Write the structure tokens for this entry.
Amino acid sequence: MRVQLYVHMFAQGLPNTLNELASAMLDWLIGVSPAGEVPDMSTIRRRIQPLWHTLKTAREN
């Protein structure tokens, strides 16, 4: 998921909200999971939040 996260942000830019990015990652996970088993949104947000927050802060400065 981490590589896809980087690819998404490279291609689409940094979303304005963490939820937008988490939704994109959830959609990707659903698409690549053969059994349809994916982490819940809170887990996805928790995992991507440090990177998203760091990049958002850097963009604002």
About this structure: The chain has a mean pLDDT of 94. The chain has three helices and no strands. The radius of gyration is 12 Å. Helices lie at 2-12, 18-32, 41-60.
